Amino acid sequence: MSPGESRLLEFVAVRLESMLRRPAVWGSLQSVEERILQLLELRRVLLVPTASANDTRRLMQTYSKFVARALDGATAEPLAIQLERTGRSAEFATLMAKFVESELATFLADGHREASEGDDGLRSTEIDVTARVLEYLRLDAEARARRHQAPPVEAIEFPDQKHS
Amino acid sequence: MANTRGQFQVEFLTSVVASGGQIAGARFSLQRSPVKRAEPMYSLTLEQHGVRSLQELPWTAELERFLLFDARRKMDTLDEEVERFAAILLNNLATAAADTRKDFVQAVLVAVLRERPEYDLGALLDRTGAPPPSRESARYHDCAAFIQHSIDGLRNTAIAILGYSPEQATGAMRDALGIVIDETFHISAADQLFPRRS
Question: What is the pLDDT of residues A54-63, one digit of tens each?
Fold first, then answer.
């Protein structure tokens, strides 16, 4: 993986962590949903460089199935709209976080097949994709650890002022 | 160059002010709950070139020093000021505990507050169950002096820098110290999780 790709992967991990932790800071839930899906598309392209950047079909298929499982009577509308309509907006971040994780699991389950389609060097491609996934998991763990790092303990000192 | 989260926060706010912006509103919450540690959070309304934006900033010592001593910023309500004072005192107690044992610092805090009738915390202090600390050691005197300086220094700062009246400052300190005792000894949390039969 090139340093540029590594930096992009780090950007994806950090941005996903931030959006899932405080989605309201990043705009309306619908726009956050779109941006998370775009980041996941970028993550797929970075993890499997041989995959076509224009092929978002697999991701959207996985997402539609996930939404259908998560909501009774799910429609083709964005998840954020469906949750708002049923007064369940508070569940948005939890559901999206579940999808971000399950999408990676789905990718691990069938991603190698995707990576090796039409590739003569099957073994080396698999190893490369696995190395990229491991790198992503490391960057994701670092992003979470930075967020939860206990701040250094430092006293607030007060100037000497006398008041009754 | 900024390295810590607090330094980043201060650098950001300083740049906003330097470019003609201002902190138009300041809110604060300890974000307390019986099942997790408090996560103190500032919500600052920033105004730049007529445009307002809301920034949520986790409490850090650097940010607090900037808002208190440089920006001289009050909170929008006195209730939020009380929670902010509690966060400052909890931070200073954590600092003292880093140098010695946590239960020792807690016992010294209770001993110090028992000698401060103006804060009228007797009933709450009786529920702490903290044993009286030995007053013989230099460690006790250092710790007690630090806690007293934190309490008095914060009250004086509330008057001299934030512009509260002495009565308002004492009232806010009393409520803040109540929160500190409650958080430190998990009194409300115990009541909620294990209600006592009357």
Answer: 677 888 888 9
Q: Is the model's pLDDT at A124 over the cut of 80?
A: no
Query: What does chain B come to in residues?
Result: 198
CB pairs under 8 A between A and B: 56
Q: Among B61, B41, B43, which residue's Cα sits nearest to residue B52?
A: B43
Task: Report the residue from B91, B94, B157 with minimal CB separation from A158.
Answer: B157
Residues of A with CB under 8 A from a CB of B: 22, 25, 151-164
**B106 CB near a chain A CB, below 8 Å?**
no
Q: Tell me which residue in B62, B94, B156 faces A162 most closely, judged by beta carbons.
A: B156
Residues whose CB is less than 8 angstroms from the CB of residue B29 and which lie 6 or more positions away in sequence, other chains included? B40, B41, B43, B80, B83
Mutation for testing the B interface, residue in A21, A147, A153 having most B CBs under 10 Å: A153
Average pLDDT, chain A: 82
What ipTM goes with this model? 0.81
Most distant CA atoms of chain A, gap in Å: 84
**pLDDT tens per residue across span B59-76:** 999 999 999 999 999 999
DSSP 8-state class, residue A18 = H
- Residue of chain A minimizing CA distance to B7: A151
